[in-house]
Amino acid sequence: MEIETWDSLEMVVMEFEVGWGFVEEGIRKIKNILQGRDETNFSAKAYINFYTIVYRMCSQKSPYLYDKDLYDKYKAVFEDYITSVVLPSLREKHDEFMLKELLKQWSNHRLMFRWLSRFFDHLERHYVKRSKMPSLSDVALTCFRNLVYEEVKGKAKDAVISLIDREREGEQIDKALVKNIVDIFVEIGASELDYYTEDFEKFFLKHTSAYYSRKASEWILEKSCLDYIRNAEECLKIEKDRVAQYLHYYSGEKLLKKVQRKLLIEHASQLLENEYFGFRALLHDEKVDDLSRMYRLFSKITNVLEQVSEMFKQHVVAEGTALVKQAENSASNKQVNITSLSTLKSQSFVRKVIELHNKNLAYVNDCFQNDSLFHKALREACEFFCNKNIMGSSSAELLASFCDNALKNGGGEKLSGETIEEMLETVVKLLTFIHDKDLFVEFYRKKLARRLLFERNASDEHERSFLAKLKLHCGGQLTSKLEGMVTDITLARKNQASFEEYLDSDPHVDLDLDFTVTVLTAGIWPTYKSFDVSLPAEMVTDFILPLGLFLCSHCLAKLFEFCFLFQLNCVGAFKEFYAAKTKRRKLTWIFSLGTCIVNGNFEPKTMELIVTTYQAALLLLFNTADRLSYSDIVEQLQLSENDVVRLLHSLSYARYKILTKEPNTRSISPTDVFEFNLKFTDKMRRIMIPLPLVEEKKKIIEDVDKDRRFSIDAAIVRIMKSRKVLSHQQLVTECIEQLSHMFKPDLKVIKKRIEDLITREYLERDDDNPSLFRYLA
């Protein structure tokens, strides 16, 4: 039917039957196009004419105003088309073919709505808006939903789930079809997802749970634990991809949770605790890839991940405890000599602990993706076994000895600078696990002093680098004295160069020997014994006697800034130099740190003996006597008997027997007589004669305990001064918190220090409540 132009219809009142006849002709053409019977589209002129007719019918005055009639007819058009065309075509098809037909009819429905919405645009903009009726799009959607969707939703849901199951079993399916059908479930609810969730998602998730429950039961019986884990990971990946490919993103998290529950959570204990392929077995066998896979699978499951981290902690504790037990067993072996025992304690054990820490830290960083839960587990595990004692030696002492060996010149291994730095970095990390950090610092300070004073450190750069790492991790309070010691040595070298320039520039000073002085700051260095030893004539004059032993032309003295020396001309020269350079500073000379080179004229050959000042003083006594009794030596040197015994033992019964003793026994007694051993010889021309080591550990521990009492006192006073009134429990808690970075205070000690502070009137108890303390200003 050809429609007249606007001009010919302008003044004519249009009856409803006439106008609707024109519109109905256009609707018939739309149906033919949708069913493939007409391939020609509407021209622009035709669109304008249809729009014009609807406009006239909605713009005429009553009784010729047909807007409500057109609105009803619009709805009837969709209902009629659905009833006569859509539903019959859907009812005769099933499964995937039904889905394809549904998609086709849904597409046709949307296309039909788009065309009709242009015809009835004026109705939409005026009548619908004015009367607050449902929009034309809502009417079209409601028709399809009530007539088509409600009838086929169950079949469509089952067909889609069936296709997904086929894909899960490895078949290829039409993913685009599935996506489009799922989109119908989404779009049918307009802006809401109620239809999607209630009519599809709920059933799909339930079916997925059942599917993977069956799969899990099959795999757990048929496959190994590792294969099960690999399959589970692959399934989770596939389901995640499935959401991205054709499901609504809203279902993603819920779908993965269902799969995780059925494949992982319900079988977590069985998978993790499997004897051969469980989490502990993977750690033991160092299966890095499988550990990473297991973490990825359980990382989103909070409760299970906590269980995994606890298992990791137990594994590290077991390995660390095994190292401790192994070290104790080796140390208790009677065949192990003192030297190898020392090496075991300070080197082998610490090195194994470092390897253990590095290995498990690599697991945390690489396999467990730097997860804080596993960092915490590793820290707690290391704290457990790193604070155990091994044959009476604390971890603090072992770490200090290990650092000393690593930083010592010729420490046993030729390590590159980079290797040493990495090793020291790990030591600092291990130190953070140790409770008694102050004890480590005190042991380390003793060993650092010996390295610096006797020039046994491999590199000042390594020393400073280690202190910088220590300061970064543990704070400047621990490292202030150590840094001062290294600075003192640097300044002492500059001071020695200035002293040598002073000697060269003064023609009146001629020492006739090499003389080195190291000036140090008192207070930051360990304390050393200082005796006014009675030196032999050779050590206080410039004469060299022609007897069995004489002073060589080289000597080395160590002193504190308030510290040591032995040759009078040298003493006077240095005092004069130092007094001119500084003011109001007193030098106290410490003989116990001096070193001398003494020539020994033995019958086989003359040898150079590197000895301490005290050893040299004792040896030079034999220049004036062939035999000396124990009491004679004590009387002439004027040292304590314990020191004399150490000196005599080093010279008469150690490796180098410079003196012979009567009677020839291992112990030194007051009745012994000593004689210079003229027949002594050695393949080396220069030898060093060490003194027997003095057991310093007991004194170090006592000093640390004393310092701790002062620290606890200071912390308590600091807290009470700030809080004024505090309960006993709160005071103890805050005290422990303040001191934990240095050491772990003993509760009994804190209680004693509180009582002592009460006695000294820093605190007082409340009269009514004995557990309440007040600060006394």
TrEMBL record:
Chain ranges of the Cullin family profile domain: 394-652
BP GO terms, sorted: jasmonic acid mediated signaling pathway; ubiquitin-dependent protein catabolic process
Keyword Isomerase: no
Record's keyword annotation contains Ubl conjugation: yes
Pfam families the record matches: Cullin, Cullin_AB, Cullin_Nedd8
Any one annotated GO CC term: cullin-RING ubiquitin ligase complex
Upper lineage: Eukaryota, Viridiplantae, Streptophyta, Embryophyta, Tracheophyta
The entry's keywords: Ubl conjugation, Ubl conjugation pathway
Signal peptide: none
Annotated protein name in UniProt: Cullin family profile domain-containing protein
SUPFAM superfamilies the UniProt entry points to: Cullin homology domain, Cullin repeat-like, Winged helix' DNA-binding domain
Organism: Ananas comosus var. bracteatus
Family (UniProt): Belongs to the cullin family.
Listed GO MF terms: ubiquitin protein ligase binding
